[in-house]
Amino acid sequence: MTSPAALSPAEASARLEEFTVIDVRAPGEYASGHVPGALNVPLDRLPEAVPALKSASARGSLLVVCASGVRSTRACEILADADIEAATLSGGTSAWERDGHGLDRPAGTRAVWPMERQVRFAAGSLVVAGLLAGRRLPAARWLSAGIGAGLVYSAVSGTCGMAAALSKLPHNRAPRGATDLDATLEALQR
Length: 190
Fold this sequence. Notes:
Strand content: 5-15%
Distance between the termini: 31 Å
Number of domains: 2
CATH topology of the largest domain: Oxidized Rhodanese, domain 1
Radius of gyration: 18 Å
Largest sheet: 5 strands, parallel
CATH architecture of the largest domain: 3-Layer(aba) Sandwich
Mean pLDDT: 88
Number of strands: 5
Order of helices and strands: EHEHEHEHEHHHHH
Oligomer: single chain
Number of helices: 9
Helix content: 40-55%
Structural class: alpha/beta
CATH class of the largest domain: Alpha Beta
């Protein structure tokens, strides 16, 4: 499989009006700041959005965005398997903002850590907890071993079970009043 086309923030910004921009982060991450005009289709919900994205891609180019470029690259691979061509934003919204491009932030939303940071925090905390608890109860060290094995599997497979679990937490869900996936899919098919 070939890698998806990757656009720098400068390239994407210069051509932004040509793209339907799809942000594959969790709704809470999306609400804390996204590329102007981006629609939110979380990575774990991407398969159900394929028909709408196929329709949108027939009308123009797709640009897939996440925080760093990792999830958007994975999304482009999923879309390629469905014969949908899409490009990814190199470095994600982090690079976009670092290069001086603005992010849309709905009024009243609070910042949510990027999913990669949430995973590192949760994994690190569980490893330390397992080691500390292991001082009194040696079997607790298996928690640290399990988290380490999960991280290795995540790196090898390109998936992350911990990210999938963390995306279900209330702070990673869409804030009240935000559009839901059904409304996004309807907008994509117009």
